[in-house]
Amino acid sequence: MNLENDLRRVLRRESPPAGFAGRVLERIEREPARKPRAWWHAAAASVTLAAVLGGYGAYRVAEHRRGEFAKEQVLTAMRIAGEKVKYAQEEVRAIGSHD
Amino acid sequence: MTAIVADAVGFSGALERAKAGDHDAFAELIERHEAMVYSLGYHFFGDRSRAEEVAQDVFLQLYRNLGTIESDSHLLYWLRQVTTRRCIDSARRTRLKAVSLEDAGELSASTKSPDPFLDRRLRQYIEDLPEMQRAVVTLRYQEDLDPSEICRIVGMPVNTVKSHLHRALQALRRKLEKLS
Amino acid sequence: MRKLVIVLALTLAAAIPASAQQINMNFPELEARAEEVVDITLDAQMLRMASKFFSGRDADERAVRDMISGLHGIYVRSYEFAKEGEYDRKIAERLKAQLGPTWKPLVTVRSKKKENVNIYANMVGDRVTGLVIISAEPREFTVVNINGPIDIERLSQLEGQFGIPELSKEK
Fold it and tell me: What is the mean pLDDT of residues C34-49?
């Protein structure tokens, strides 16, 4: 068994049912008319915000990133720990069921 | 790998025209990327109608955000990221039950597998994985992305992505070994 | 495949806060040979910071946030190797030797071909004040040290039930 080859085969791309693009365009046409937002609107807003916040803004962004990173680390650690404990519990139950 | 590279190579004409409001050009973008987006959803949920729903939502969102797309490679990255995150977010909200083997439907006609039963089982096991492991496995083996590319899409450190991938493969191997 | 499982104690009451021992989990010789390393070091300050980023509206995230409140640290080292036999599985003995008399073995799972797991709890009376999990597989060695009061039963229920990060805004 070569799992990676099996995964590549099983997860091969497939096309959606025929007419998919048309269905998307129909939904777009049903939407209320929106004026496409020019790319420079977003850029100008970012520049202004950065200028206003300055160093404090940068600090807050960095803090946020650290916090999110720490959260991910916690999730990973707890998942690993939970997996090992669960494995041990299952082995115990398996032995118990054979008694 | 060839298909992935081809997606990123210059079709910038359609993108620029779509940004200028050309719906035919936008349709061209959809046709170019629909298989990728749809398949991410289908492999995540195991449900074709759910996959179509997510895919439609993604392209609708793309239409609204075309102005922020800078290039064809950015578009590809954007689509992968948005699709993956929508799938995870949706699964988190609804906690869909895995489709049973009886409901899994016919195998795709394009599948040439020496063991259709194994493929069906493997799909089921992938759908049973926790959402993030499922996303990482799908991005790795459907899109042939390596962990450093996946981590940007899912917004997690690369070691965390590697950990998810490793555990997913471990879980899949264990289940398949039990099967054999 | 022979498998030996020894159950010495399994069910424990909720813990009271008390500082528990933090063990030395650094193995430079493993790190040098490993293909991949997961290294997580979260002290009390980092855990407090992380807590703020768990959603109070999501039941699973609330469960994790509750579980880590009061902890003094979480430490994970996981080494994955390209081939079997790249590390000495007796390294688990070096870890166990660091555990003092208050550390009690909870579960030992032994398998020659699959995963050996040892779980130890630091006990103050009948309260858990720390946990060490040592897992040795043919190609992977993992140690988890949770420093502080931890509910083992709740911990075992976490695996497979969560894992979705907060989605940051798309660009």
Answer: 86
- As for the ipTM of the complex, it is 0.80
The per-residue DSSP string of A75-99 comes to HHHHHHHHHHHHHHHHHHHHHHHH-
Report domain extents, chain A.
54-99
pLDDT band at C170 (very low <50, low <70, confident <90, very high): very low
List pLDDT tens digits, range C69-108.
Answer: 989 999 999 888 878 888 888 888 889 999 988 899 989 8
φ, ψ of residue C4 to 5 degrees: the values are -120, 125
Per residue in A12-70, pLDDT tens? 999 999 999 999 999 988 865 544 444 444 445 555 555 555 666 666 766 777 787 78
C165/B contact by beta carbon, under 8 A: yes
Decide if C80 and B156 are in contact by the 8 Å CB cutoff: no
Query: Which chain A residues have a beta carbon less than 8 Å from that of C162?
Result: 75, 79
Other chains touching A, judged by 3 or more CB pairs under 8 Å: B, C
Residues of chain C with Cβ-Cβ distance to B88 below 8 Å are 164, 167
Interface check B173 vs C, CB under 8 A: no
Residues of C in contact with A94 (CB under 8 A): 5
Q: Considering only CA atoms, which of C20, C37, C19, C13 is closest in space to residue C98?
A: C20
Task: Name the nearest CA neighbour of A27 among A35, A37, A36, A19.
Answer: A19
C contacts of B156 (beta carbons < 8 Å): 165
For residue C80, how many other CB atoms are within 10 A of its CB? 19
- Does residue C14 register a pLDDT over 90? no
Specify the DSSP class assigned to residue C72: -
Counting one residue from chain A and one from chain C, the pairs whose CB atoms sit within 8 A come to 110
Mean pLDDT of A63-80: 81
DSSP, res C13: B
Structural domains of chain B, with CATH: 1-96 (1.10.1740.10), 113-180 (1.10.10.10)
For residue B60, which residues of chain A lie inside 8 Å, CB to CB? 24, 27-28, 31
Q: Strand order of the sheet with strand C116-124?
A: C3-7, C103-111, C116-124, C127-137, C140-147, C73-80, C36-43
Instruction: Assess contact for B145 and B153: CB atoms under 8 A.
Output: yes
Asked if C47 lies within 8 A of A81 by C-beta distance, the reply is no
Calpha distance B13→C142 (Å, rounded): 51
Are C38 and B88 a contacting pair at CB < 8 A? no
Nearest chain B alpha carbon to A10: B119
